[in-house]
Amino acid sequence: MNILIIGDICGRPGRQAAAHYIPLLRQEYQTDLIIANGENSAGGVGITAPVMDELLNAGVDVITSGNHIWDKKEILDFIDKAPRLVRPANYPPGTPGFGYTVLTKQQVKIAVVNLAGRAFMPPIDCPFREADKILTAIAAQADIIIVDFHAETTSEKMALAWYLDGRVSCLVGTHTHIQTADERILPNGTAYITDLGMVGPWDSVLGVDKDLVINKFLTGLPAKFHLADGRNVFCAVIVKIDEATGKATAITRIKRYLN
Amino acid sequence: MNILIIGDICGRPGRQAAAHYIPLLRQEYQTDLIIANGENSAGGVGITAPVMDELLNAGVDVITSGNHIWDKKEILDFIDKAPRLVRPANYPPGTPGFGYTVLTKQQVKIAVVNLAGRAFMPPIDCPFREADKILTAIAAQADIIIVDFHAETTSEKMALAWYLDGRVSCLVGTHTHIQTADERILPNGTAYITDLGMVGPWDSVLGVDKDLVINKFLTGLPAKFHLADGRNVFCAVIVKIDEATGKATAITRIKRYLN
Amino acid sequence: MNILIIGDICGRPGRQAAAHYIPLLRQEYQTDLIIANGENSAGGVGITAPVMDELLNAGVDVITSGNHIWDKKEILDFIDKAPRLVRPANYPPGTPGFGYTVLTKQQVKIAVVNLAGRAFMPPIDCPFREADKILTAIAAQADIIIVDFHAETTSEKMALAWYLDGRVSCLVGTHTHIQTADERILPNGTAYITDLGMVGPWDSVLGVDKDLVINKFLTGLPAKFHLADGRNVFCAVIVKIDEATGKATAITRIKRYLN
Amino acid sequence: MNILIIGDICGRPGRQAAAHYIPLLRQEYQTDLIIANGENSAGGVGITAPVMDELLNAGVDVITSGNHIWDKKEILDFIDKAPRLVRPANYPPGTPGFGYTVLTKQQVKIAVVNLAGRAFMPPIDCPFREADKILTAIAAQADIIIVDFHAETTSEKMALAWYLDGRVSCLVGTHTHIQTADERILPNGTAYITDLGMVGPWDSVLGVDKDLVINKFLTGLPAKFHLADGRNVFCAVIVKIDEATGKATAITRIKRYLN
Ligand SMILES: [Fe+2]
Ligand SMILES: [Fe+2]
Ligand SMILES: [Fe+2]
Ligand SMILES: [Fe+2]
Ligand SMILES: [Fe+2]
Ligand SMILES: [Fe+2]
Ligand SMILES: [Fe+2]
Ligand SMILES: [Fe+2]
User: Fold this and answer.
1) Which end of chain B has fewer CB atoms < 10 Å from its terminal CB, N or C?
2) Ligand 4 center to residue B66 CA distance, Å?
3) What is the ipTM of this complex?
């Protein structure tokens, strides 16, 4: 089974690049499932119901997210009714929304789990222990398990991947918006990449107009950010998983551009 | 002119991998200058005089560094006499050591500048303004300027690269120990990569034994870290620079393994 | 000379408490100068021109501030024309506004300097070195020097106070909104308190409605804060300074309530 | 019932000041129970078995702690056998040691609970939810509940106090080493102070030699800290609790000096 996993989609330009490449890659790689991180998909921060629908209509099966998922207030109106949108599972008990979802494709049951890191990020529950809990809960239900670990530091991402090696089919990192070149299959069969990278304006700082960000670093003054113009980058991976064993057999990094 | 720039070298395994690949790459790419980040070169944190000499003897022309440069106390005994070892230039006035160095290769004057970030890092002087100051100081002395920006976040690295685009030949990021896949030439001629990656144990967390790091995340208790065993990764870039203009014309990412 | 220095004034309730106690304390302690921190004086974050005028009309001679000074956008319209409002002097070169001000009372020249900390706060220039620069600049102009050091940690505040002991008449801390009980005269004549405390709603978390803050800690979700209701606290110190020597001779902590 | 609660005891000078004042205050206030924070009691960071015994022999009934409790490695040898020493209860499951203890004095059952904050501190479990769990567990066993909340920010401390108001007899903050002037009885009967302050060298930065700390702020270089010389401060509170209701009726701040 081939799964396309797409990094943080940034606003309208990111959604357009995603809509452009999803059908092409689906055909090129004969993908069976498409996952995308949507925490920045509405205007650069957060997600709205129409934007979620736009991504689902573009072919995304499951939308993962991260710390920015709460930034558009209307999220609280629909997240509890949106089982194909997941938010980090290690937010505290009582947090609206779902931390993971299980769906069936070609009679294979696939769980998609979202977790967030704590190093240099707001305090939440332990992602390592939350992963243990979820794996216990879904062991019987899922043939394949995909984790989007939304975290800042390379060490927390790499550590969780080793911790889950052989227990999940794939762990991808998101949040830094820069694709890493370390995709690999860990010894016990978990496909891994530290960060998928983003989908959005390429001549930018993480999607944002570069002059605004430079000015922020130079002055320290509050600033209103908006996305940059110009051509876009589309960052993702294709993971090949043996559905009989749940082990990954290949991970391919994808990076395309769109004017 | 071809310049080989090598990421954070981790301890003895990293030094061995560097010693193995430096002559091979020098020949393969006909390199004229070799730069390596040595902040972790002695046992995983810091650098000593014998380790510095070992790196220089292996063919490194300039050693850059970062936040860990101070971790071996003996650094203060020799850093002021070590012009080929640079530490972040934006440490405060009075800090021992050199923030940049200028050397001549094939009658071309090359400045190597080290800077450190401030996002999620200890407070120091502004790297953007320090860069401006240094560029003013060395404008007349240098045909080519290479910057190693040792920083945690992708945004601070990308922002400084855009800020210096066209004013330096190349800016490489270090510190996260994971190579990024975004090497490029910016519009005004600066070669860029968000992080070079490291040289050291591959089945590890940033070079360190993975079980120790996992345990640290699980327990929060203090832990003594040591480097991992096993095969090593060697991460670097080759940058091709037109010495007439000081502009980069190509950047090639290098990732090799050594058992 | 007696100087009244008032902690962070929080919104309308804080301004009302300040307006109530300023005339009473001026008479009770025969004060010659009144300083107040206004970073939260407009609705809880930031300051506007009408709010600044309200504080000045209430008898405040100099308004100091801190990290929240930029939170109301209109600040940029008037801060360059507001010499009696100071913002941290160690913001980078080019920052709008004034980092210190010098005024004359009873033929005594008094400098009021604002600085901000860096521990657990956004990266700015070194407050220790900025203090050195300002003291050099104003040595000839000022008989008395008062510093408001707006910082998070007790260690950075205490360290700067020792660093400046004998070089300034008084250093008060602000930002934590909780008054400390450590007011003292340091050995070389500098009056010191780690934090003045705030002026605003007492049954609150730092002025803010407590249920909102508790909920923020419990859920981690974004929240809109507003100030709490009910009685107010008024926190300040009275510092007695010998204008002949510039040394402090007494510091008295003030804490009053207003229904 | 009168309870003496003493702030972070710093090294030998702190232990000497504690040994001096404990008998005096026990008699002066007719105290029934003595609690002290010992996270810095051995040489400034951590605690050893002999130091623990010294504190217990000096009259301390329960030793609370905080983030520094792990700094002397030998702690792991004895913490599981030391029921009168508590460490923050919201460290993750499996952490050595006890998070709370229950003891009986004059037939009154008293629980002493230790919790740690997360704002600007290492990631651990939620202190608010951990408090809920412990209160449920000990509801039947304890007439009086005392909480030492070891945390950096005034907001997290004040928020937890409001959250527990009426459910615990007293919540004191520790960790900043500077006593605050906000001791009070909250509306539902919980005695509160944001920080007890420390017991240790008064002409210092949080107990440490001030020149070392100033130098650390000026240079950013690693530094070995040692405690300061000279007279000591002894910071504590006396809390009067009605054992029939478990409610506090008075809280008195104590600050004494010893040459
Ligand atoms: Fe993102
Ligand atoms: Fe994110
Ligand atoms: Fe490194
Ligand atoms: Fe580093
Ligand atoms: Fe404030
Ligand atoms: Fe503030
Ligand atoms: Fe402490
Ligand atoms: Fe502490």
Assistant:
1) C
2) 5
3) 0.97
